[in-house]
Design a protein that fits this description.
The protein is about 40% helix and about 5% strand. It is mostly helical. A two-stranded antiparallel sheet has the order 1-2.
């Protein structure tokens, strides 16, 4: 939400986290943590001074949602299984019956996020697998 807010202000806009916090009802301290990670990943640039804040480091068309999620150390996990543990989501050494379903869904979500840019979200130009466009909510 914060990255789309930033992008919606214009390509060269420098926006304070306080402004984003107010518009999106996101905690300022949480935004500070996120934007530190986004800056380190090269997705945003910080600007100091009286009219300081943040700007996108490149055009919003070139920033995919999967890069944002990776930058803030988030994973798309639909089950509790990890390769590092011997016990799976069932608490046993066998996987649950729906394990492959959740793996496949995770893969679809990751693929979708890799194709959608911040600009797509701002313009609400999102397509679903059948090629139709999602209409903006009214």
């Amino acid at each position: 939400m914060a990255m789309t807010d930033l992008a919606s202000q214009g390509a060269d806009s420098v926006v304070s986290l306080t402004e984003i916090s107010k518009r999106q009802s996101i905690s300022l301290s949480y935004l500070e943590q996120l934007f530190g990670k986004l800056r380190k990943a090269g997705l945003v640039e910080s600007h100091r001074g009286h009219s300081g804040g943040y700007s996108l480091s490149r055009p919003s068309e070139g920033i995919k949602l999967d890069a944002i999620i990776a930058a803030v150390d988030e994973d798309i996990k639909l089950h509790g299984c990890t390769p590092e543990i011997k016990q799976h989501c069932t608490g046993h050494t066998t996987q649950c019956l729906t394990h492959s379903l959740w793996d496949a869904l995770e893969a679809h979500i990751e693929d979708f996020l890799a194709k959608v840019s911040v600009a797509d979200v701002v313009s609400q130009n999102l397509t679903v697998p059948n090629g139709s466009t999602l209409e903006p909510a009214e």
